[in-house]
Design a protein that fits this description.
This protein has helices at 36-39, 54-60, 170-178, and strands spanning 2-4, 17-26, 32-35, 43-46, 68-73, 93-102, 105-106, 114-120, 133-143, 149-162, 184-191, 204-219, 227-230. With 259 residues, it is mostly beta strands.
Length: 259
C-alpha cells in the first residue's frame, strides 16, 4: 500500500544498489523489531540478488524514488518457518519502506543527504582538501517536488574556486573533499542543511561537476601569515627540513592594500 507518492516514473532494476529507510513490525501485535530510522542511517542492498528477504526484492522493485509504502509480507516471503532473532516462526511482517535513491553513493558522514553518481570516475585516489583551490566547471539544478529539474547556474568554462569561501554549497564541498577524483565528472545531490546558503533547507539541489584538478593550499604558520599554493601535485612525498640546502626559482608579485 502506497503512503506517499514518489517522483518520476522510473523504478529500480535487478542489480541496482538501492537505499531505503524502513521500520519493521510484527503484524500480530505491532511490536517493532528493527528500524533504520532509529539508527539514523539508510539501509542499502543489491536488488534482486537474494541479499534480503524475497518480499523486499519484489516490493522495492515496484517503487519510485521518494515513495513511501507499507509492505505486508507473509512468512513464505519473509523469514519462513524458522524466524530470525526477534521474529518468531511463521510470522507475517509489516514494513514501512521509503525508497530514497538507487545507483548513487552516500558522501560519508551525511546520512544520505548528500549523494553522488559518477559519470566518469576520474583518476587516482586523492581528493582535494577543505581549503584547496579546485579547478571545475559545473551546472546547478533546482530539483522540484515532482522530480523535474530546473537549470539555474551554468559555468561552462573551467574556473578556480577556493573551498571554504561560500561559493559552493556545503554538500558540494564535502563531495569534492571526500568522494571526487581528478578528471571526474559527477552528479551530486544535496538536501537539507547541506544546501546552506543556496535557498531554504527544504530545497534539493543537484550539481553536475567536472573536476579537472586542484591546487593544494597550505597555511604555513597556521595564522594566515604565509600561504603557499602548490601549482603542481606531482611533487612526490619528500619535504625539506630546516637543515636542507635548497635551490628556488621565484617569480614574485607584490600585493598592495588600497587605503
Amino acid at each position: 500500500r502506497v503512503h506517499g507518492e514518489g517522483i518520476g516514473s522510473e523504478t529500480p532494476q535487478e542489480g541496482d544498489e538501492v537505499y531505503v529507510h524502513y521500520v519493521g513490525t510484527l503484524a500480530s501485535d505491532g511490536t517493532k523489531f528493527d528500524s533504520s530510522r532509529d539508527r539514523d542511517s539508510p539501509f542499502h542492498f543489491t536488488l534482486g540478488k537474494g541479499s534480503v528477504i524475497k518480499g523486499w526484492d519484489i516490493g522495492v522493485a515496484t517503487m519510485k524514488k521518494g515513495e513511501k509504502s507499507l509492505f505486508t509480507i507473509r512468512s513464505d516471503y519473509g523469514y519462513g518457518n524458522s524466524g530470525s532473532g526477534k521474529i518468531p516462526p511463521k510470522a507475517t511482517l509489516n514494513f514501512e519502506v521509503e525508497l530514497l535513491y538507487w545507483n548513487e553513493k552516500e558522501v560519508p558522514g551525511t546520512k544520505g543527504k548528500v549523494t553522488y553518481r559518477n559519470i566518469n570516475e576520474g583518476d587516482g585516489w586523492k581528493h582535494p582538501n577543505a581549503k584547496d583551490e579546485v579547478v571545475i566547471k559545473y551546472t546547478e539544478f533546482i530539483v522540484n517536488e515532482d522530480g523535474s529539474e530546473k537549470e539555474s547556474v551554468v559555468v561552462d568554462d573551467f574556473v578556480n574556486i577556493q573551498l571554504g569561501t561560500g561559493v559552493l554549497p556545503k554538500g558540494v564541498e564535502l563531495a569534492l573533499t571526500k568522494s571526487l577524483l581528478k578528471n571526474s565528472t559527477t552528479l551530486v545531490t544535496c538536501k537539507g542543511e547541506y544546501t546552506s546558503g543556496f535557498g531554504n533547507n527544504s530545497k534539493t539541489l543537484k550539481y553536475k561537476i567536472e573536476l579537472k584538478d586542484w591546487n593544494i593550499i597550505t597555511d604555513v604558520d597556521g595564522k594566515g601569515g604565509i600561504i603557499v599554493k602548490a601549482l603542481s601535485q606531482d611533487c612526490g612525498f619528500d619535504k625539506c627540513d630546516d637543515s636542507f640546502r635548497v635551490k628556488l626559482e621565484i617569480e614574485g608579485k607584490r600585493q598592495f592594500k588600497v587605503r
